[in-house]
Amino acid sequence: MSDPFELTDRPAIDPSLNDPSYDGASAHRAAYLETLNESQREAVETMDGPVLVLAGAGTGKTRVLTTRLGHILRQGRAAPGDLLAVTFTNKSAREMQRRVAAMLGTPVEGWWVGTFHALGARIVRRHAEAVGLKSNFTILDSDDQVRLLKQILNARDIDPKRFPARAFSTVIQRWKDRALTPEKVPQTDDALDGSAIGVYKEYQEHLKRINAADFGDLLMLCVTLFQAQPEILKSYQRRFRYILVDEYQDTNVAQYLWLRLLAQRHRNICCVGDDDQSIYSWRGAEVANILRFEQDFPGAKIVRLERNYRSGAHILGAASGLIANNEGRLGKTLWTDRTDAEKVRVRGVWDSQEEARWVCDEIEMRQTRAESLNSMAILVRTSAQTREFEERLITLGIAYQVIGGLRFYERQEIRDAVAYLRVIAQPRDDLAFQRIVNLPKRGLGQATMQTVHQDARARAVPLTTSIMELLSTDELKPRPRKTLNDLMTDFARWRRESQTRPPAELLDLVLAESGYLDMWKSDKAITAPGRVENLKELVLGLNEFETLTSFLEHVSLVMDNEDMKNVDKLSLMTLHGAKGLEFDTVFLPGWEDGLFPHQRALDETGVQGLEEERRLAYVGLTRARHSAYITFAASRQIFGKWQSSLPSRFIDELPLEHIERSRELGIAQGGADGNWKGRQHRTLDDTVFAPARNTVNGLEVGQRIFHQKFGYGQIRALDGEKLDINFEKAGAKKVMASFVEPT
DNA sequence: ATGTACAAGATTTTT
DNA sequence: TCTTGTACAT
């Protein structure tokens, strides 16, 4: 099979696509443009030059994008191989492929479609040497990244209590999102007591040593490659005659630079986005990318899509009223001619368990009315919220799937098995090696590994290289030396086998010979048999792949929850995970201040954070076609402790005419006035909504306070006479109410 | 080298 | 509540 990404052989367009007598999809052909509205059509048919489509939620932007792709092919303006379509999730990439195929009546092969990361990986792999890697480099996930950083910090004697590896990981990721190599990070941006740039530099060097790249590298290296090697850039510029980008509002600086470089020659770039749905600024996304589009591409055509086809009038009205509270929007006025009578239902309950019970009862009720579970979803703010719903759903026997939860490839036994394959494919992969060096237990403990680590570090070589050297000295004790020697012999043999055997067979062999499978077989834990099953499934799944490398790339970049078709299941996911999806009925639990909007967002980025949370709420609401439910609880368990909370300020912002309120008995008559700083009151009668509001010494949750010893902070929760306060300097602390004063 | 017990800490959001 | 890290015994 030829590599569709090969630059030299440009896949030709399927002649049948342009043949008028071919009627593989005559229905689609006749209809594909006629069914578009005027603005959609404009976005599809403007072929030459840059196009920016400002599309509101549910206005058919994916449809525009795919129709445009099909249209380009149908007109014979480009061959599939000349197209570059970029999305954020593999799911939407697959959806795009499916739709284009449906429209043309035949599958289209050989075009570049995928996520930024997957496409970046292709390019980096092709030119790996130019960025100091070998073409079989490993792609590290964030777990590996943190583990590697831990080692670096450990060697540098950085106190993990004060500066945990996670903090460094975040800082480095942010820099990579801005395409900043260690050399380019301004000194003034150095973080974590000025140690971050140094750590970043060492981290990058370490990655090269073990021949690995992390997610951020896939794009950053691509950008630096293009900047350093104009010839390479030119070849791609020539290649991509048409570029299409979905969810443009969520592109970060690295992605933006990448696109801008690639589009320079043909300038046929079409970006589709909605500033009101920008929810990834914490990952470096810049809404500003939309604003500067016209500057970067002078003469750009701007098309607005404002007609919403998805949601009922009340849902759209509620969402629009909510998002109107944000300032600095580009401003779109979504409209619909639907006249559904269903309002957004808002309900207050006592606690999170009651919330789960009520939501799941409602789901069950809808199910008995012949609504499919596939058409319903529960969208939560934090992944921890899914647990209570899961418990309830299991009790009721409702089938569900958690999207974005623990995936197949994230399970322990699968990661272990994959680690074996990684070491076989790439002996320099230290992180994979460390994972399995003593798994199953081989008697290689701390002492031995410490010796190896020190040697590897001193000579700046990967662990396996160091071990090969150490084996010929007497630095290691006889027992571990023999064990390591055997292990290295095993790996050498497996590596030889990998040349001739298909990957599935190889894994089967490795699992048996390493004793890893036996380890689980003899394990008495209840989870053990399941793990053995999973390993069998992995071997089976490997049959699809011809090479080890292609499988490993699939695991790290393409693999996501392959939801089983034809099974009716309720979806449970975070609001972020719901981007680009739609459901008939959507449940939005946990609308409480502190949870949604999330306290961290408010603390860290203030008004900006609040606005992003509001956009997230907007995204949530606009996922619904017919029905939307919002719930909030007066108290909720966090870390196993009950905490009281107040309804989200977003609830106050929903226009009354579009919502319908209800409450659990007894929750209502709090009678508090609900005035806290920065809170704007609209006409909503708060007494109906506010659960009995706890105050201690006149202090309440969310309030800013001052403490003699710890300084300024914000009250997170009340706990009897104690307050749980998040101090700006000192962090989270519990203090007596009598020691703080309001500011 | 490995197993156990207890304490401390964690949770925004992700390709 | 659940997971991870540390200290100490085996």
What would you say this structure looks like, in words?
- The chain has 743 residues and is α/β, with parallel strands linked by helices.
- It contains 28 helices and 21 strands.
- Strands 9, 10, 11, 12, 13, 14, 15 and 16 form an 8-stranded mixed sheet that branches. It has a 6-stranded parallel sheet with strand order 3-2-6-7-1-8.
- Helix 3 packs across helix 4, helix 19 (446-459) packs across helix 20 and helix 21 packs antiparallel against helix 22 (503-514).
- The longest helix is centred in the middle third of the chain and has 23 residues, at 478-500.
- The chain binds a DNA duplex (15 and 10 nucleotides) through residues 88-90, 115-118, 141-142, 215-216, 218-219, 279-280, 282-283, 381-384, 387, 404, 438, 441, 443-448, 557, 560, 574-577, 595-596, 598-601, 612, 616, 637-641.
Keywords, separated by commas or semicolons:
43% helix; eight-stranded mixed β-sheet; 28 helices; globular; 743 residues; alpha/beta; six-stranded parallel β-sheet; DNA-binding
Summarize the structure.
The chain contains 28 helices and 21 strands. It is an alpha/beta fold and 743 residues long. It is globular and about 80 Å long.
Specify the helix fraction band.
40-55%
Radius of gyration: 28 Å
> Biggest sheet: strands, sense, closure?
8 strands, mixed
Overall SS class: alpha/beta
Strand content: 15-25%
Helical region count? 28
- Molecular shape: globular
| Model regions low in confidence, pLDDT < 50 over at least 5 residues | 1-13, 15-28, 668-693
